Amino acid sequence: MSDATKAVLFNAVPLFVLAASYAAVAVAMLPEFWRLRSRAHLVDWGVVLVFPAVAATAAIFGVLVLREQRAVVGHVWLSLIAILLAIVPAALLLVRWRDHGLVAGGVGRTLEAEERVSVRDRELEAVTSISEDIVRARDEVDVARPLVRHVATLLEVGFAAVTMVDAGGGTASGLYAESEGRAADWWQEVHVDLEREPSGVANAVSDAAPVVVFDVVGSPLVSRRLSARVGARSAVFVPMIAESSVLGVLTAASITDRRAFSAEEVSLLQAVAAEAALAFERLRSSAALAEALDRERTAAEIARRLRAELEPERVAALAADELRRVLLLDRSEVVLGGGPRAGVAVEARGDRVATLIVERTPDLGDGEVLLVQAVARELGSALQTARLLAENARRLEQQQALLHAAEVVTGELSLDAVLLRLVEEVTALLRADAADCYLVDGERGVLRCAAVHGFDAGLVGVEFVPDGGLSGTAEDEPRVVGRLPHAAYDTFALGLEAPMVWAGEWLGVLGVGVRDGDRRFDDDDVELLGAFASLAALALRNAESYEASVRRAGLERGFSRIASLLGESLSLAESYDAAAHAAADALGADFAAVLAPTAAGLAVAGEYRLPAEVRALEVPAALDEARAAAQVLAASQVAGDERFGTAWQASPVASLLAIPVSEGAGGVVLVCFREPRAFTADDLGLAQQVAAAAHGALERSRLFEAERAARSLSQQLARAAAALTTELDPGAVLQAAAREAAELLGADAALVSMLDGDEVVVAAAVGGPVGSVLGVRSASTDGVAGDVLAARGPIALADGTSAAGHAPADPLLGGRFVAYLGVPVARSGEEPRGVLSVYAREPRTWRDEEVEALTTLAANAAVAYVNAELYRHVAIEREQSAAILANIADGIVAVDRDGRAVLWNHAAEAITGVPASEAVGRPPGEILRRELQSDRETSAARLVSISRGGDEVWLALSEAVMRDPAGAVAGRIFAFRDISAEYAVEEMKSGFVSSVSLELRAPLTTIYGFAQTLLRDDVVFSDDDRRTFLHFIAREAERLTATVDALLQVARIETGDLAVSLEPTDVGAVVTELVASATDSGQNGHHVVADIAADMPPARADPVKLRDVLEQLVSNAVKFSPDGGTVTVSARRTGDAVELAVSDHGTGIAPSERERIFEKFVKGGSGIGRGTGVGLFIAQGLVREMGGRIHVDSEEGSGSRFAFELPLVRE
Amino acid sequence: MGTTRVLVIDDEAPIRLLCRVNLEAAGMSVLEAGDGVAGIEEARRSEPDVILLDVMMPGLDGWHVAEALLDDPATDEIPIVFLTARAELRDRARGIDLGGVDYVTKPFDPVELAPLVRDLLERVEHGQRDDLRREKLTELRAQLARP
C-alpha cells in the first residue's frame, strides 16, 4: 500500500470519524445547554464549545490529509494513535448520553447546591452554638441570653426577646430581650395577659405554632404597647414547646424595615426554640427537685427539734414557732386536743390529737403545704411520745406512792394501828378527802366500819348488811359508788370502794370519798385502789396473825408457868399457890385462889394476891355446885348477880370465873377481876386448860409428897444394903443388919435370930440388954419370932404388950419394949433363915412403907449372910486348894477364859524357871514362848518342849478344860511334869538303837555282799579275788564281834559285872605297843606318837583293859582330827599315880558337850559319824574299875586331851 | 551307747569293791571315790552314767554330796542312787526329796545292783526320771501309812 493510501486510510478516515463524533456530541448537548443558558457559568460555555471546536479541527486535518495524500506531519502510525486517543472522550460521552446534562451547565448547578448547603450549615451551627451555651445555663436568663443574641444575629433583626408563660398559664412575663445588640432590661417588667390582651405572644401560645407578622403596625395580632415600645416593623413569634406545653415565646422583630421571614428562618427559629424549651424544662425540674430536698431538710430539722422536747405543750409551741420561722407565716398555731377544727389534723396512731393552723398571704405553695403536712406528722409522733412519757412518769409516781403506803401499812403489827394507817394512807394515795374501812364480821353476816379518816368518827362501829348478804357479794373489782345511806357520807359527792381479799377470803371493803363534785375517778384511780386494797388485805391478815400470836404467847406464858411449877419439887401447899398464880397469869386476872374441898366444904388452899377481905368471905354455894357439876361458873358482873351474896357483891370482885379442877375430890380455881368483864369462849376454853394443868400440878405434888417419904426410906435402905454387902463375915453381916434395921426405922432395939435346926438363936442385937440376949436359944415355933417364921411374912405389933401370950417367948418384948415389927430373914423365894425384929419403947404404928423397907432390908441381910457364908466357905476351900497346889510336885497352871494365867504353882515355877509373880496375868504361851493349849478339848498327856534359861526342857503335859454352868469355856488347867531326863534317856536309847543298827549293818553288808558275790555262778572269780572277798568277810566279822563285845561291856559296866584283873603293869610298854600297832594300821595318815616319861614305875592296872581304853581314846582322837594330824599318847608320873593322856589337835569339844561325852550312847561331833556312842562310856567304866578317873581338857577348834590316872603299885 | 559307767562313792573300801566286782561282771565300768569331796571331783571329771552314793561318810556326807552334784549344771543330770545303812523311812524320803532317783539300803544283794542300774538308766533315758522319783515317794508314803 502506498503511503498515500495509508495516509488516507489510517489518518484521513480516522480524522473524519473523530470530527463526526465530536460534532455529534456537540449537537446532542446544544438544546439542553440552550435551555440552561441563563444560569450557565462561563466555565460551562468553555466546556460546551470544546466539542464543535475539536470536530472542526479534525475535519480540517482530514481534508488536508486527503489533499496531500500524506500522513499528518509524516507519521502515519503515530498520527493514527493520536487520533484514536482523541476519539476516546467523545466515545465515552456518547456511551453515557443520559448524563450529558451534567456537562452542560454542571458548574452553575453546583454553585447553587453549594449555596443551599451553606444556609443549612448556618442554621445547624446556630442551633449547636445555642445548645452549647444554654446547656451550661444556671437559670432561665442564662438560657434566654444566648438565645436572644443568636436569633438577633442569625436573622439580622434589631430586636429579640424571650417571654415565659407564668405558672398559672394566664399570663406571661418578659424574661430577657436585646434591642440593637444591647440588653433591654425593661423587658423583664413586661407582663402579658394571655387571655384578655391580643398579642403575638398570646397567639403563639394559644396556637402553639409560629406567628409571622409582616406589618406589625397594621396587624391586629400584636400588642400595640409592646410593638410601639420595641419599634417593631415586622415580627415573628415562635412558641417554645416542651412535653406538649408551651413554656414561653421567642420573639424576633425587625425595627428598621419591614421584611418577610422565610420558611427556613422560621424553621430555624423553631429548632432553636425547641432547644431552649428543653433547657427551660430541665431548669424547672432541677429547681423543683432542689425545692423538694430543701423542704425535706427543713421538715427533718423541725422533727429533730420536736423530738428533743418531752412535754406536749412545749412540743406544740415549738412546732408552731418553727413553721412560722421557716414559712414566714402570718399565723401559726397548734391547738391540742381532738375534735373537728379547721386546720391541718395532727394524728397519733390514727387519732386526732391536735390541729395545726397556718395562715399566710400569699398562700402557701405546694411545697410549703407539703412541709406543713410533714411537720404535722412529726408533731403527731412527738406528741404521742411526750404523752407516753408523761403517762409513765405518772404511773411511776403512783407506784411509788402505793409502795410507800404499803410500807407504812405493813410496818404496823397491831390491828388497830394498821386500820388507822390504812385509811390515812389510802386517802393520801388517791388524793381523796376521806377514807373508810369496813371489816367482814362473818359470824353476824355484816360489814362493820372499823376505821375512818376524814369521815365523822361516829361512823366507826356502824354496820351494813351488804346487798344480798355477805356470801358471794365481795366485788372482784373496785367500783365507784354514789351516796351511801349514812349521814356521815352526806357531804361527799362521790366514792370509790374496793374489796380487801386475801387468799380468796373476803376480809372487808376499803373506800375513799371526795367532796368535789367535779372530781372523777379514772381508771388509774380504780387500779390504784384495787392494788392498795390487796396490800391492805395482806396487812390486815398479818396484823391478825400477830394478834393471835400475841394472845397465844400470853397463854403459853401461863402454861409455861404451870409447867415450870410441875417441874419443881413443891409441897402441896406451894403447888396450890402456884396454881392460883398461873391461873391469874393465864387469864390476866387481878387475883386468884384455889379452893380445896374439906369436910366443911370448900376452903382456900392456895392464893395469889388475894385481898384479905375477899379471903374472909364465905365461899358461895354456887361455887360448890359448879365444882360438883364440873362446870365453869362465869360471872361477868358480880354486883347484882343473885348467885353471890351481898358481901360478895360489895367486894372488890367485879367479875369472876370459877373453874373446877377435876371431878369429885378436886377443888376449884377462882379467878377474879376488879372490873366487870365479858367472858368469851376463848376465855372459858383457856380456863378449862388452866384447870387441867393445875390438876396435873396438884396431882403431881401429892404424888411427890408421898414419894418423898418413900424415897427417904429407900435411900436409907440402900445405904443399909450397901453397909451389909461390905461385910464378909456372917456374924458381922447379921450385926450390921440389926444396926441398920434399928436406924432405918428409928427403932430402939433390933435383934436378928437365926434358925439352927429346930431352934432360933439370937445372933445379933442392937440396943437394950444386948449381952443378955445374944446366944439365947428358943424353939423355932415359939414367940412372935416363931409366928414370923410360920407366916413367912412380917408381923407388926403397935403395942405388943396387949398381945399376951407372945411376951414370955420373946427376949425383949414385954419389958421395956412394947412395939414390935418382925420380918423373916430370907432370900426371895427361899425358906426363912431367921427373923429380923425391931422394937420400940413406945407403942408405934408401923407404916406400910416401913414394913416394906424392913422386909427389903431383911432380904438384903439374908443375901449378904448367904454370900458371907459362901465367901467363908470358898475362902477355906481356896486356902486348902492353894496348899495342895503349892505342894504338888507337878506344875499346875490355870488360865482364865481369856487365856491368862491365874494360877502358877511352885512346881510350875521350878519347872519353867518363871516365877508366879511374873507369870500370873499373862498368857502362858507368851511366857514360855510355847503354846500349851491343844486344839483338842481334852487330851492325854502330850510331850512339849520349852526353853528354860537356854536349856530344852521336856514336859509331859495334860490339860483340862473348865466350863461355866452355861457350858462355855471358863478356863483351862494345865498339869505338867519335867521329863527332860527321861526324855534324854529315851532319845539316847533311840539314838543308840539306830547307831547299833548302823554299826551292825556295815559289817553285815560286807559279809552278806561278798558271800552273795561268791555264790554267783555266772561269774568266775580268780583265787586272789576270792581270797580278798573272804578276807573282807573275816575282817568284818571281827568288827561285828568287837561291836557286840562293846555292847556287852556296857551291859557289864551297868550291872557292875565288869571284871578287871589288876596287876602291876608297865604302862610305857602298853603305850609303846599301842602306838606301834596304830601306826601299822595307818589310820588315814595320822601320826600316832608316844611320849613316855623315863623311869615310869609300874601302875596297878589291867593291861588288856588299859590297852582297850587307850585304843578307844586314840581311835576317837584320830576320828576328830584332820588327816595327817598328830595324836600323842603320853605317860608320866604324877605324885603317887601315873597319868596317861591322849591328845590331839582336832576339832575339840564344845563346853556343853564335855560333861556328857562320857555318858553312854552319847556321840561326839555332829552325831553322823560312826560309832555306837559307848566308847568313852566303856573307857570311863574301865578306868573307874581300875581305880582311876578319866577327864578331858579341850578347847573347841584346837584339840582335846583325854587323861586318866592309875594308881602306882604300892610297895 | 558305750559301756555304762558307774561311780561308787563310799568310804568303805569293801563296799566299793563289792560294787565294782558285781557291776563289772555285768559289763559296766566302775569308778570309785573314798569320800564326798573326791566323789564330787570324780563326778565332774568323768561324768558317769550313774552314781551310787553312800550317806554315812566322814567329812562331807552323802546328803551334801548329792546337793552339790544336783546344784552343778555339769552333774545335775546324773542319776543318783543312795546306798545307805540308814533304813528309816524319813532318811529314804530325804534322799528322794534331795533329788535322788532311788535308794538301796544296806545290807543289799550286790547281784541285784547291775539290773537295778540298768533298769534305772533305761527309764531315765526315756525321760522318766521324775516319774521314778514320784513312784519312790508314793511307795514311801504307802509304807508310812501302813501302821
Structure description:
The complex is a heterodimer of chains A (1211) and B (147). Chain A has 1211 residues and is an alpha+beta fold. Chain A is built from 31 helices and 39 strands. In chain A, the strands form eight sheets. In chain A, strands 1, 2, 3, 4, 5, 6 and 7 form a seven-stranded antiparallel beta sheet that branches. Chain A has a six-stranded antiparallel beta sheet with strand order 13-12-11-16-15-14. Chain A has a six-stranded antiparallel beta sheet with strand order 24-23-22-27-26-25, sandwiched between helices. Chain A is flat, with a radius of gyration of 85 Å. The model of chain A is unreliable at 469-474 (pLDDT under 50). Chain B has 147 residues and is of the alpha/beta class. Helix content of chain B is 50%, strand content 16%. In chain B, strands 2-1-3-4-5 form a five-stranded parallel beta sheet, sandwiched between helices. In chain B, helix 1 (13-25) links the parallel strand 1 and strand 2 (29-33). In chain B, helix 2 (36-46) runs parallel beside helix 3 (62-71) and helix 4 packs antiparallel against helix 6. Chain B is globular. The model of chain B has no long low-confidence stretch (mean pLDDT 86). At the A-B interface, helix 26 and helix 27 of A face helix 1 of B.
